[in-house]
Write a structure and sequence with these properties.
signal; 4 helices; 32% strand; DUF3558; 24% helix; globular; alpha+beta; two-stranded antiparallel sheet
Length: 195
């Protein structure tokens, strides 16, 4: 049941993202076939950076947001997650040109092993952000978003997602992954400057 819920959560989150629009219901089944879980190995973290109490909206400075062309105010939320156990704090920031949304989640209820152990579905590619192990996650069934998952501490991770937010034509998935990696790099710069 937990694996089924995680798979459903991945599909819902990658479909709905962390937008300020309507919320998807966990009871609503996905309309596309479920993807297969993937197992991945990552190197150890260079050090631990606990993110308890870190405001995700503080992790992109106003200057960094300008560089990412995010011109709308950050929208913070804390609520039960459709993907991770328990409540998760996240921040969504949108831009108009192009129509993109970057969301940052400070996940203190699950670590990177949530993704590396095959509990979550998606195409995963190992990466390194500011010398920390990371994963770039693409949905195998949806193409309007891309996540970067950063291993920052035992049982904790940062989830940075880029989504096309109504762009016409939609932003290509490869570009969304590049945007997510760029945003994740800036997020880690800010987090490291705070510790």
């Amino acid at each position: 049941m937990g694996v089924r819920r995680a798979l459903l959560g991945v599909l819902i989150v990658l479909l709905a993202g962390c937008s300020t629009g309507g919320q998807a219901s966990p009871a609503d089944p996905p309309t596309t076939p479920q993807a297969s879980p993937t197992t991945v190995s990552l190197p150890p973290r260079p050090r631990d950076i606990p993110i308890d109490g870190v405001d995700p909206c503080s992790l992109l400075t106003p200057e960094q947001r300008v560089g990412l062309r995010l011109d709308r105010p950050p929208q913070p939320r804390r609520e039960p997650s459709l993907l991770y156990p328990g409540e998760v704090s996240w921040c969504s920031i949108r831009g108009n040109e192009p129509a993109i949304s970057i969301s940052i989640s400070t996940v203190t209820t699950a670590g990177i092993e949530f993704w590396t152990s095959g509990q979550a579905a998606g195409e995963l590619r190992p990466a390194e952000i500011a010398e920390f192990p990371a994963l770039v996650a693409r949905s195998q069934v949806l193409d309007d978003g891309c996540k970067v998952l950063l291993d920052v501490a035992p049982g904790q991770l940062l989830d940075v997602q880029a989504r096309s937010a109504g762009a016409d034509p939609p932003i290509p998935e490869d570009q969304l992954c590049r945007d997510a990696e760029r945003a994740a790099d800036l997020v880690m710069d800010t987090l490291l400057s705070q510790h």
